[in-house]
Write a structure and sequence with these properties.
The complex is a heterodimer of chains A (about 70) and B (about 575). By secondary structure, chain A is an all-alpha fold. Chain A has one domain. Chain B is an all-alpha fold and about 575 residues long. Chain B has a single domain, classed as Up-down Bundle (Sodium/glucose cotransporter). In chain B, α6 packs antiparallel against α24, α8 runs antiparallel to α19 and α17 crosses α18. Chain B is globular. Classes of the chains: A mainly alpha (about 70), B mainly alpha (about 575). At the A-B interface, α1 and α2 of A face α2, α9, α10, α16 and α17 of B.
Chain lengths: ~70, ~575
């Protein structure tokens, strides 16, 4: 059975990628009404963190590598 | 109904970008994919209703916590933090941690070794069919009504925050939940609860990080709150000496004995919605570790719930008001503080993740209610009272159909609440009637071998009736609150605490008196059900740092330290 942690990894990976991409787009196209603390570019580093954690989970718990007792 | 039609453009709190919508749509696709994937693994009763009893401590623990971490909970307590300050943290610390540890170390072994499918199932084993019938019927009825109330509340929030049509929110969320629970049973619900746990942290943790950066740290935040509200908004205990020294209108007796000793014990140890997740654990050590893991994370939840409310108090330019006064353009209620803080700090993508976390919280809460309802209906009402001779396959099918029917009843309740808003208050009050007396019955059953079937049944009944009586009394004559809560200065929350305390006491007294007057069961019949007559199974010969008792001690120490720091 596919581990539940693999599904978590997929979720974090895809969400992290979308958030990171949106943050990078905003670098080139700054919004007219930026959020508070826009200058910290939270979507870039937070999206990046989620993407990396998601990638780690996907790698660690990918179905072929999984052990039966993982979940 | 197309998405374009559904996203009706009325006054809304936030505006979503295409990337936000993509994140929300991806969430729905993922939970449906999980449901379809798990369809083939829910063929037996044990699989469908108990997730095969093969969850690790981490999965069971996170699911146990997530079942209580719904979006209404998040938004409501963030709003309470804005309204009452850090006092709201009591519902996460003293109102949860001792009860979770008690469940892990004292009660879980009995639930686990009795191999019961449910809390009403334990009552059947300990006190007989009448106690189970009262508990099962009331639980099933109230759970499915609560699910409807939550569904309506979610649709209302989506309308206010995003401008979405109420019908669209109700049918899409209900349809998704019905599909994934009917396909995968409890395992599917648990998978999605763990997913929700991660989404909530990923979506909400940025608010305290950025908020503390903006305010200049905790010390500066406290100073700003003291300036805009009151010094008492940032103290957990120092204002609880009397009813008038704190914004909540409650005293320490209500918090310690009403909330900490009764309400939270009742909720965390006997509400089948949360206990069901632990019963799915793979062994006794996992079953004991799961609530301890849940307690560890529960202590951290104020970071993403209470702190955003406090930050809202310091940084939001507008003053939030009660639900009844909100609604005009630019006038928001306390409960809107979390979405307002999301909109303040979160740009495209992050906003979508935050909203997805709220939707996930609503849906997994609904799924939790429906899966618990399905189990109690099938195992505690249908099987013992209606069809005693069905096959395992028949009961699984009954479970699948009950899931769909439970969702349909919930939808009906949601529309009923839409027509008669006051029903919501009544349903929530009704639910609270059963919690404290049920805890009295279960804990006496586990710890006192002399408790008898008639004692347990009548104690439960009288405790519940006393709770209803006090609630009706205060409803008819609000000045009666001075008698129920022991002070004319008490407020509504104090009523809940004291009502629980009195109904618990009534339940215990009636159970004890009736038990002493009736014939006790033989010791042999109580083996596996009562402390002192049951050899509690060992967690095995494992190192100290792997023992549940060790980690319960760690959690308890952190709990005390946190309360002293924020005294």
């Amino acid at each position: 059975m596919v581990s539940i942690w693999f599904f978590i990894g997929i979720s974090l990976l895809v969400n992290g990628f979308l958030i990171l991409a949106a943050g990078l787009y905003e670098l080139g196209h700054p919004p007219q009404h930026p959020v508070v603390l826009f200058q910290l570019h939270a979507n870039i580093w937070w999206g990046g963190i989620l993407f990396l954690v998601g990638a780690l989970y996907c790698y660690r718990f990918a179905p072929p590598k999984q052990r039966s007792q993982l979940w | 109904m197309t998405i374009a039609l559904a996203l009706v453009s009325v006054q809304r709190l936030v505006h979503l970008s295409p990337v936000d919508l993509a994140i929300i749509i991806f969430y729905f696709a993922l939970v449906l994919a999980i449901g379809f994937y798990l369809r083939g693994r829910a063929n037996t009763g044990e699989d469908f209703f108990m997730a095969g009893r093969e969850m690790t401590a981490w999965v069971a623990g996170l699911s146990f916590l997530s079942a209580n971490l719904g979006a209404l909970e998040l938004m409501g307590w963030a709003g309470s933090a804005y309204q009452y300050g850090i006092l709201a943290t009591h519902w996460y610390w003293i109102g949860a941690i001792p009860a979770m540890l008690f469940l892990a170390l004292v009660m879980m072994p009995f639930y686990y070794i009795s191999k019961t499918h449910s809390v009403p199932g334990y009552l059947k084993l300990r006190f007989g069919e009448p106690a189970r019938a009262v508990s099962a019927v009331s639980f099933a009825f109230m759970t499915v009504l609560m699910s409807g109330v939550n569904m309506f509340a979610m649709a209302k929030v989506m309308q206010i925050v995003l401008g979405w049509d109420i019908n669209f929110s109700i049918w899409v969320s209900a349809g998704t939940v019905a599909i994934y629970v009917a396909l995968g049973g409890l395992r599917s619900a648990i998978f999605n609860e763990v997913l929700q746990f991660f989404l909530i942290w990923a979506g909400a943790l940025l608010i305290p990080i950025l908020g503390l950066y903006e305010t200049g740290g905790w010390s500066n935040l406290k100073a700003q709150i003291a300036q805009r509200a009151s010094e008492q908004y940032v103290h957990l205990w120092s204002g609880l000496g009397s009813f008038t020294n704190n914004p909540m209108g409650i005293n320490w007796v209500g918090i310690v004995f009403g909330l900490g000793a009764i309400i939270s014990m009742g909720y965390w140890t006997t509400d089948f919605l949360v206990v069901q997740r632990i019963l799915a654990a793979k062994d006794i050590r996992s079953a004991e570790m799961a609530p301890i893991i849940g307690a560890g994370f529960k202590m951290m939840v104020p970071l993403i719930v209470i702190l955003p409310g406090l930050l809202g108090l310091a940084v939001l330019p507008m003053k939030l008001v009660g639900q009844n006064a909100a609604g005009a353009p630019g006038v928001y209620s306390y409960n809107d503080v979390l979405p307002l803080m999301l909109a303040r700090y979160c740009g495209p993508g992050l906003l979508g993740l935050g909203i997805t976390a709220l939707i996930a919280g609503f849906m997994s809460g609904m799924a939790g209610n429906v899966s618990a309802f399905t189990t109690v209906w099938t195992y505690d009402i249908y099987r013992p009272l209606i069809n005693t001779k069905g096959s395992d396959h028949h009961y699984v099918n009954m479970g699948r159909w009950t899931t769909v029917i439970g969702v349909l009843i919930s939808i009906g309740t949601a529309y009923l609440v839409m027509q008669f808003a006051s029903i919501m208050d009544y349903v929530q009050a009704l639910f609270s009637f059963f919690i404290a007396p049920l805890f009295g019955t279960v804990v006496l059953g586990m710890l006192w071998k002399r408790a008898t079937g008639p004692g347990g049944f009548l104690g439960l009944l009288c405790g519940t009736m006393s709770s209803i009586g006090m609630w009706t009394w205060v409803k008819a004559d609000p000045t009666a609150l001075r008698y129920v809560a022991l002070s004319p200065n008490a407020k509504a929350l104090a009523q809940d605490m004291y009502q629980a305390l009195w109904s618990f006491i009534v339940c215990v007294i009636v159970t004890v008196v009736v038990s002493l007057a009736t014939q006790p069961k033989a010791d042999a019949e109580l083996t596996g059900l009562v402390y002192g007559l049951t050899p509690v199974p060992s967690v095995g010969n494992i190192p100290v740092y792997q023992k549940p008792l060790f980690w319960a001690g760690v959690v308890a120490v952190v709990f005390f330290v946190l309360n002293i720091i924020f005294w």
